[in-house]
Amino acid sequence: MLSLTTGLAPLVLAGLLGWTGAVKVFSRGTAQQAPKTALARMLRSSERATTVLRATGAGELLIAAGLLVVPANPVPGAAAAVLGAGFLGYLGYGRAVAPESSCGCSASEDTPITWRAFARAAVVLIGGATVAVAQDTWWPAVSERPAGALVLLAGAAAVLVALSADLDRWWLLPLRRTRLRVFGHPLLGTATDQVPVAASVELLENSLAWQAAAPVVRSALLDHWEDDGWRILQYSGVYGDRENARPVAVVFALDATAGRDTGDDPIVRVSYVDADSGESVAVDELRAAPSRRILPMAG
Length: 299
Description:
Elements: H1 2-26, H2 29-33, H3 38-43, H4 46-69, H5 74-97, H6 115-134, H7 139-144, H8 146-162, H9 168-183, H10 197-205, H11 208-213, E1 223-227, E2 230-239, E3 246-255, E4 268-274, E5 294-296
Parallel strand pairs: 4-5
Antiparallel strand pairs: 1-2, 2-3, 3-4
């Protein structure tokens, strides 16, 4: 079993580095995610962060190719170990100076740095050191023990998926939705019988509707209530130019049971009410950019 594990280590490590490297190099999301990473905070430039992420991705692809083609050569394994050690150092420093930022490890995750990022970097370090010392090739392990190799590769893939926050939407969120459908929401049956208001506010402030209405909003949450399954969130705002600025109430409505674990971004309805006259203000009169997720509230 140990020989099979060391024999397949280059293949597993190549798969991990090939995936993260390809995402960094070829994904359009690299430039979009770069400003949210700890790397951008360190370099004080989103452009430089994007360049470093793509260069790192190219290095990962090169190492992955070496692990696949010449796994018995210690150089690709040693390079992977050095890369893993560098990842651990970067994550530690990034967690210290920008704990709210993402690591950019796969250029598609936007969650803060957690233990999963450290664990994945440790896998690269340990896997690279193992490959460099063992100097085994992976194809005899696959050809001689295909069933065992398949089981081991499936287990390794499951572990790597579990350590990747950006893949949660493919397995963890569906699992949570199933749990909610089977066992119900943990807050049901309490006095509120709804998800916390703070959860609705967080969901709203991460939506495209909020991004479009943000230029009008001028306050924190002022009031909230439930109506026919909708959670209503009210803010104050201002529309018009400086000379003709007029106060407005900005009212958002979203599913009262919606939360981060209940699925995709919910539809958010928006209504603007003139604070002086109480009349509804048409969306095209506002300076907020349109969004496909904004639906005007009826009535």
